[in-house]
Amino acid sequence: MAVEERVEASAGAPASTTAPDIRLEQVTKQFDDVVAVDGVSLEVPRGSFFALLGPSGCGKTTTLRMIGGFEEPTEGTIYLADRDVTGLPPYKRDVNTVFQTYALFPHLSIFDNVAFGLRRRGVKGGDLRGRVARMLELVQLGGFERRKPHQLSGGQQQRVALARALVNSPQVLLLDEPLGALDLKLRKEMQLFIKGLQHELGITFIHVTHDQEEAMTMADTIAVMNSGHIEQLGTPTDLYEHPRTAFVARFLGVSNMLEGSADGDGTVRLSDGTVLRAPAAAGRRGHVAVGIRPEKIRLGGNEGNTLAGEIAERSYIGVSTQYLVKTKAGTITVYVQNADPGAGAYKPGDQVALSWSPEVTFVVEHEEEEKPE
Q1: Which residues neighbour 348 within 8 Å (Cβ) at sequence distance 6 or greater?
Q2: What share of the chain is helix, strand, coil (3-state, %, to 5)?
Q3: Which tens digits make up the pLDDT trace of 302-353?
Q4: Residue 44 near residue 50, CB atoms below 8 Å
Q5: How buried is residue 161: exposed, middle or buried, by Cβ count under 10 Å (0-12/13-18/19+)?
Q6: Nearest to residue 42, comparing CAs of 63, 14, 62, 23?
Q7: Going by DSSP bridges, is the β-strand pair 172-176/95-99 parallel, antiparallel, or unpaired?
Q8: DSSP string of 284-304?
Q9: pLDDT tens digits for 272-313?
Q10: Angle, to 10 degrees, between the axis of helix 110-120 and the axis of helix 125-138?
């Protein structure tokens, strides 16, 4: 099926009526006595941009390699759509992979790099030239056909690697930390480029990264992995606003975590005796941790939950001013947007009242904070 046909098929069939492009059922991978992936089950909807996010050693790359056929699971089953591909080599799976190192052939021209897979499949003549030309135009490299990889920038080489992987119209494209070798500015540009490319083609992308901002910028759905299992799966908004564990709250951005006790009535009593309203605590009892994102907190005012404190540090960080505020319940980080009047008006030693809405207060089990990262 050509790229154009895939886009039509993807656009014409709602995700709810089609099989997921990738399905993992209780997949485990063990290396000697180390369990790298531990009973992972997940579904990747057709035409979605899916990210596996987590720290080094969490099992995300091993999971991707098992999907691609570069590693075989110790237990469990891997499906590509409705087809069981467990045990099949990479070349028998309708997937392609883009690696961090790009893996371009240095002695071949850009045209021949992109055409390599097509030639192996027997595509020749005008069909080959036309498909390569269309793909190079799609990745904004039309006119670069005769150059060699060393004559291109890092971002251009990355686009050649994408073109080579996509020209065969795979059902799924796997991206293994593809932006790790680029500088910050180029990495941010490529994030938007790859996201736009996926939307245009409608092909399922599965992206492995340890960079939470990268995952949130690019992906429709993120699986946060920790110690070989999926800690939480959801949209970037769900994961950021409603983390279910302390690990997810800390890994996806900055969180203020305050110890307390819940009695099941939607309130949490902190260690200093302050009672906070938190709808997320309804039905919970026992030792918990209350979480508030730094940008949700106001210096002054009364938005439902309040704590008194003293400014310990102030730092100008561009779009916002960061304050560290000492309270009896612990030190709290606050971000104030520099567009707000008086964003940097407070100084160390000033007494302040912190306030935030009960609705933005999330609650997780306290013992989960101690999980190894």
Answers
A1: 311, 312, 313, 314
A2: 30, 35, 35
A3: 888 999 999 999 999 999 999 999 999 999 999 999 988 777 789 999 999 9
A4: yes
A5: buried
A6: 23
A7: parallel
A8: EEEEEEEEE-GGG-EESS-SS
A9: 899 999 999 998 899 999 999 999 999 987 888 999 999 999
A10: 130
